[in-house]
Fold this protein.
Amino acid sequence: MPSRETFAYRRALKLRAQKAVDDNDSTIDSVFARAQDDFLTFCTIMDKAPAHHMLEWHKHLITGVSNRYLLDIAGPNLDILAPRGSAKSTVLNMFTAWTIGRHTSKGMPLQIIYCSYNIATAIPKSRIIKQIIDSTSFKKIFPKVKLKSGMQSDIGWSIDFDYAGIDRVGDEEFTLRAAGLRGSITSKRAHLVIVDDPIKSSADIKNPAVRDEMNNNWSSVIAPIVFEGGRSICLGTRFHPLDIHKTMFSPTKGWKQVSQEALTYDSEGDAVSYWPEQWSVEYLQQQKELDPVAFAFQYQQQPVMTSDLVLSPDLIVKGEVETEFDSLAVGIDLSASKNETSDYTAFVLGGRLKDKFYIIDAHQVRSIGNLEKIDLLCDMLVEWGILELQGDQYFPTYSTVTLVVEAVAYQASLAADLRRVLLNERGLGNLHIHEVKGFRGDKVARFRGTLGLLENKKVIFNKYRKFDALTDQLINVGATSHDDLLDAYTWLMTFLQRRGNFSVEY
């Protein structure tokens, strides 16, 4: 069987036959020399000619802009969203190897963090890039580049800077480090961060804890290690409305986001495959029929509503909060344990003014006794001027508020303690207790009774308060580990929607 080098020569000859070349390009070596500055030629020699949809990626990967660290690839952070099975990793492996070769040949040492879902999925990709650089064809294109002896671990490796004639005295020698968005992250500084398919599966990314871990690792560990002028590039697929492509790699965070759909439609309305040589229209349509929701996410990059996601994140409206209301209330959901895995006691403060509803503040706490919960409630009301605190005593104001609490099982004890402590002992006459009976039905059905207000943009969340836990529970009804704030919000909104008593005007 012919060797890899033989195949590379054959591809080079074929490339020369297909493309017009200058009169000076009289040898095969000129094709290898051209590959130093032409990524398409490089891919053709090393593997095969890129597919049409890959050429669209090339336009965004190679910007033609340079700075002190990056050669022709500088620019804004880039998030390319492409269908499953579109050879994303293959292109990123080639791009990374070509970029290392170019920078080394120009005397520009490049430090790269190569990220994936976790370190276990990043290591094989690091190994492939290393194998490309160590191949005979690569060495013909970039003769100054070779791997450094003794620094060839799959987790981290380096090219030989002495062999390339690059002075690195006093600087740490590494070219590529593998890392995962989940788990421990290397803290080495980098000029370029490559993120290759950061999401493992739709089932995994449904877990809010997994999403939070990925977001925190990116924002607090990976993003700060990039040099000023460096760049982050991600090639991935959507799996969830609140995945990292929405929360971190988005235009609102300064990223350039490019989406590619597997199925498009021509002027006649006929379906067209993004890669007809690999995936036919018939196959893609079959995939769409099997699971329309998964197809919309993973092939079309279109987040859609699902059975466990009844609220779009776009319906969470933040804005200024009014200072006077027609009605003011606190929705309360009680927990009975201080155990770490138990429910929280949640308070959601909100008000109604005409046909608008305002979510002013929200708190949650784990405690066993009701007195600690009542004190937290009072502190929140003091902060918003509903109560006054003088010394260690609370005093009422002219602002009245209704405390909405469920009168079922152990929650009935809180209603009794609220009356005893707040009304009898502390004399807070501006606080009213409203007990509600348990709802017959699941939480999703209960919440849907208030969903119309959100869909009509009638609910305004205080933009000066963080409601991350509440909004997560609203968006992922039934899929979060806790739903206490959701319950408190539901009691609040149900009460605020009540019409007042009829009055007669004379």
Remarks:
- The mean pLDDT is 85.
- Residues 313-496 form a domain with the Nucleotidyltransferase; domain 5 fold (CATH 3.30.420.240).
